[in-house]
Amino acid sequence: MKFTKIKSIKISTLETVVFSVIWILIFSVPVFQQQNNESFFWNKIANEWIRISALLVIFVINIHIFVPRFLFEKKYAKYILYTFLLILISILLVIYFKSILFESEPVSMPPMNFGPGMPPMEFGKNMPPPIGYKPPQEVVKQSITMMFVNNFILSVLVVGASIAFKMMTQWLYEENRRKDLEKEQLKTEIALLRHQVSPHFFMNTLNNIHALVDINTETAKNAIIRLSTLMRYLLYETAQGHTTLKKELDFIESYISLMKLRFSEKVIIQTEIPENIPDISIPPMLFNSFIENAFKHGVSYQSTSYVYFKVEILDNQLNCLIKNSKHKPTELPTKKFSGIGMANIRKSLDLLFEDKYKLDIQENEKEYRVQLTFPL
Predict the structure, then answer these.
(1) pLDDT of 79-124, one tens digit each?
(2) Which CATH number fits domain 199-375: 3.30.565.10, 3.10.450.50, 1.10.10.10, 3.40.30.10?
């Protein structure tokens, strides 16, 4: 999906920026540490930069090659082996380059002169070394050992940091991908919902209009206009995945007006829609499932029934109230919520408004009531 690719590029760019900033700061640390007044000890700075460069190589190879190809693919043995070899080779190269570029001077003590007539005394020749003194060879061996241990510990820490960094960016990518998939699924569900306005509804509406042509021409003409409005909305207005509140409410009014043709005066249908409707964008077919449910399960041909639809706008919030009568099982078989189902409706609302909406559904023996509130 194009949207997913764009987000993937953004996450990759963010990863590169954060990665660059962190390592620029790390490389700048030796510069500040080896500064004396206005002079810099570039020899020591370069010495540290060699070690940091090796850690950078470990970080880059691990985050871009080892983690995606081995760790995320659950090839743990290969990952551990290759990472260990990478660390070992990097440390040996650091020690090698340091020994070439920064040779340490031999550790020795100058001859001591004890006055005229006394020969100068040197450690290791005619004078015993002080307590704790170690030959230069042993000092070099100990220095190499400590250098190896220090670099190994730092390398393991860098590997751990690179794993955490990569897992975080991978989680962000997967989370965005999951949301994109859910949005695409929601679009599919809305598209199906657009076509879900039952063919029986159109067939019954056309039959009613046909019957009205000879009885009440003006009512028949008005019904045709309403049906045209409804069809135009379904075919064109909802194709983009969003519409205006006014068009959505016009659709609901047309739908309810056509439904009135099917019922007698025993069915009381009321709507309350504000005259001044703000020009705001909302998802299409937002109220349709509730309206369909109200007519499908709230109307009985044997007893008085009612359907009530009200929309009001208060404090930048839209409040929608839908009520319908509820009848005994002998008059109207009890069924579950129709349409795409309550679970899917709640899921769609979660994706559209997250936790900023409120859907309250109540029912008793005589009434089914739905109240939906969301910010504009």
Answers:
(1) 899 999 998 998 888 888 777 765 544 445 555 555 565 555 555 5
(2) 3.30.565.10
